[in-house]
Amino acid sequence: MRLVLLGPPGSGKGTQADLLARKFGVPQISTGVLLRSQSADTPLSAAAQRHLAAGTLVPDEIVVGVVAERLARPDTAAGFVLDGFPRTVPQAEALTELLGSAGLDCVLEFTVPPDEIVRRLSGRRECGACRRSYHLEFNPARADGCDDCGSELVQRADDQPATIAERLKVYASETLPLVVYFRAAGLLTTVPANGSVDSVFVQTLAAVRPAPR
Ligand code: AMP
User: Ligand 1: distance of its center to the CA of 198 in Å?
Assistant: First the structure.
């Protein structure tokens, strides 16, 4: 199963990617997670970290390199769920080239109204140590710190209001053209992602269509 999930920040695509990856027994490949986990000890990776903090896109050649390396690992033999990649038309073209005749099964686009996105992102918190994620309103921790390890919960630098606005702008200008790109390829299905995690997952599963082989 080779899937791509598209959607603005806060659309819940990371959560749905995790559920899909478990369901199909394939890895979730999140470029946000891969990029955030890189150290900033070379000029190229330091530049990537600056883009992450500002909510702007890391240059295509860096991201495509990271994804090419990840897709070359043997655990992707049965497929993958790409979460946050591609985000530009050149990245989509690079992916098409990387996959060759194997291609994608389908692309799911998650849509959520803008005010709901801001509510979701500004309440998001994560454990500073184990990275477990929480939400002040929808998924609060039971105590002051992380339920698993007790460490302090922190807000991602790019979940601050000014950076959220920048990320939404970047999504509209750079990533939305992919909706047209993948629709033209006959791969796109749109999933309204305004409901609960469980109800969105039901719709997500219904939208997954394996490509004929
Ligand atoms: P995410 O965790 O998917 O919200 O991504 C967080 C940040 O990582 C984005 O705001 C970008 O700075 C960077 N990023 C993640 N995926 C990509 C990508 N495919 N292309 C460029 N930048 C990316």
Answer: 25
- Confidence class for position 146, pLDDT limits 50, 70, 90: very high
- Cβ atoms within 10 Å of 36's Cβ, excluding its own: 15
Confidence of residue 111 (pLDDT cuts 50, 70, 90): very high
For the cut 80, the answer to whether the pLDDT of residue 25 exceeds it is yes
> Which residues lie below 8 Å from residue 10, measured CB to CB, with a gap of 6+?
112, 116, 117, 118, 120, 121, 124, 164
Rounded to whole angstroms, the Cα distance separating 65 from 75 reads 18
Q: Is 156 a catalytic residue?
A: yes
Verdict on whether the full-model pTM lies above 0.85 = yes
CB 136 within 8 A of CB 155: no
**Among the options 2, 13, 70, 125, which is catalytic?**
13
Could you tell me the pLDDT band of residue 132, with boundaries at 50, 70 and 90? Answer: confident
* Mean predicted confidence (pLDDT) in 91-97: 96
Single-letter residue type at 204: T
The sign of the torsion formed by the CA atoms of 148, 152, 153, 157 equals: negative
Pocket of ligand 1 (CB under 6 A): 9, 31-32, 35, 51-52, 55-58, 63, 84-87, 91, 158, 167
Question: Could you confirm whether 167 is annotated as catalytic?
Answer: yes
